[in-house]
């Protein structure tokens, strides 16, 4: 029986005219997977468009792309939509969410919350990054993971595994990294491009956000806040808040780290991180969000005091359940 990678490879080989999209506010896995699929389609001589409702973040403007990333949805929509790293259909943004044709959608993802909204769905939570799934599609097409294709896969996998430090890192993950290295991908050159993207404004934001640190649940939870006023005062944006939660994750004794980022007045994006067996996807699900076992998030409305109490109570509920 053909594997999902081979089924998708066959479709890419036999069809033409594709739209590739990932979730809004794309991270390294979303950008890397988008780029990697584009390089695969270019190698096959196919027509394709790279689309993201949020555009390409500044932090990834160094990534080699087979075509520009457009924020304008093509009209008419290409024959096939390839959606990557979206735990829910609406994560592609309002315009594409409304335009997607399920019978013409290929859904490649590793989020447990994914409802399988395409005609061809490859959803597998055992993969640490969608980029690792794209690598298997490339293998099914006998394409070498070298050059920009290999670098895109590396970007996806390295960032979504915390540079191979998260619990999602498995022997196959490290074997893929070794294959990429042998194919000519140079982590020593790529890692600084990924990591060294800070601006003075973002460093000031980090200082201000860390100053808001609160410890909850007898030191098991650390919480920081990036409200609109802090972002305005430091000359930063929501994009600059990405990843700041990981600094809280480094605190000794903390099992769950969290950041509340205010996107609109009293409209907050919460991001959660954990280690080991603490399943914070359950916390996010309680609050209408989603994600992975050790990285999840969602949105809340209300005053800072209200959303803080809601988040702390939900985390306490899940941690107590794990202790029983």
UniProtKB/TrEMBL annotation:
Alphabetical list of InterPro entries matching this protein: DDH_dom, DHH_sf, DHHA1_dom, Oligoribo/pAp-PDE_c-di-AMP_PDE
Alphabetical list of SUPFAM superfamilies matching this protein: DHH phosphoesterases
* Pfam families assigned: DHH, DHHA1
Question: DDH domain: which residues?
Answer: 18-139
Gene Ontology molecular-function annotations: nucleic acid binding
Source species, domain of life = Bacteria
All copies of the DHHA1 domain together span 228-320
This one is known as: Phosphoesterase RecJ domain-containing protein
Q: Which organism is it from?
A: Paucidesulfovibrio gracilis DSM 16080
């Amino acid at each position: 029986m053909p594997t999902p990678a081979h089924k998708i490879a066959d479709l890419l080989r036999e069809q033409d005219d594709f739209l590739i999209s990932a979730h809004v506010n794309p991270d390294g896995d979303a950008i890397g997977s988008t780029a990697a699929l584009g390089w695969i389609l270019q190698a096959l001589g196919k027509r394709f468009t790279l689309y993201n409702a949020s555009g390409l973040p500044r932090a990834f403007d160094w990534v080699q792309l087979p075509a520009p990333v457009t924020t304008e949805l093509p009209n008419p929509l290409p024959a096939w939509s390839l959606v990557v790293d979206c735990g829910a259909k609406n994560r592609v943004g309002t315009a594409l969410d409304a335009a997607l044709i399920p019978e013409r959608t290929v859904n490649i993802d590793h989020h447990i919350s994914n409802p399988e909204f395409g005609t061809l769905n490859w959803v597998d939570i055992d993969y640490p990054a969608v980029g690792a799934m794209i690598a298997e599609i490339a293998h099914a097409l006998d394409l070498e993971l070298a050059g920009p294709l290999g670098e895109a896969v590396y970007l996806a996998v390295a960032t979504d595994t915390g540079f191979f430090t998260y619990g999602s890192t498995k022997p196959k993950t490290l074997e893929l990294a070794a294959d990429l290295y042998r194919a000519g991908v140079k982590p020593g050159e790529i890692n600084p491009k990924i990591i060294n993207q800070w601006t003075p404004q973002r460093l000031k934001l980090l200082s201000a956000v860390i100053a808001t640190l609160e410890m909850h649940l007898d030191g098991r939870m650390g919480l920081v806040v990036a409200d609109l006023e802090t972002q305005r005062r430091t000359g930063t944006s929501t994009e600059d808040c990405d990843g700041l939660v990981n600094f809280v994750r480094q605190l000794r004794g903390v099992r769950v780290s969290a950041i509340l980022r205010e996107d609109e007045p009293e409209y907050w994006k919460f991001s959660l991180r954990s280690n080991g067996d603490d399943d914070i996807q359950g916390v996010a699900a309680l609050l209408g969000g989603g994600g992975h076992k050790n990285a999840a998030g969602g949105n809340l409305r209300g005053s800072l005091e209200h959303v803080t109490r809601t988040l702390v109570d939900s985390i306490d509920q899940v941690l107590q359940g794990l202790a029983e």
